[in-house]
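F.,

This is the one I mentioned.
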């Protein structure tokens, strides 16, 4: 089992920044990659970014967040971060951290490839 706890959400104005944190505990060695997803009101949950623990390789959702969001990890702290800059009202959502282990191509982009999920943290961007 892997336990994930997100923090860092809140209310920010358009153009502002937030940094989300996801602290992992338990059998963290079973997870090959960590991802961030988000779910806006009335919409399906969508992939935002992912990072591989071992290599640090990163992947982002095309267009919507690339260039504005940065995912990173601190292996010593078993913590993954999502730095969000130039925030827009359309970034408003509940952000979820997740851990997965599949080696399938592009597994990190698919919800069902993640076995463990955090409780989510609300991010609200006001216009």
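My design for it:
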């Amino acid at each position: 089992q892997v336990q994930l706890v997100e923090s860092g959400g809140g209310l920010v104005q358009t153009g502002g920044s937030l940094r989300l944190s996801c602290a992992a505990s338990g059998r963290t060695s079973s997870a090959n990659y960590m991802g961030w997803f988000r779910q806006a009101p009335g919409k399906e949950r969508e992939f935002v970014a992912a990072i591989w623990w071992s290599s640090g390789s990163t992947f982002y959702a095309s267009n919507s967040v690339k260039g504005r969001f940065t995912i990173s990890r601190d292996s010593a702290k078993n913590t993954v971060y999502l730095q969000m800059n130039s925030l827009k009202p359309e970034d408003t959502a509940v952000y979820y951290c997740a851990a997965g282990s599949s080696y399938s191509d592009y597994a990190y982009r698919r919800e069902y490839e993640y076995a463990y999920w955090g409780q989510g943290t609300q991010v609200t961007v006001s216009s």
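The CA atoms of residues 38 and 44 lie 8 Å apart.

Talk soon.
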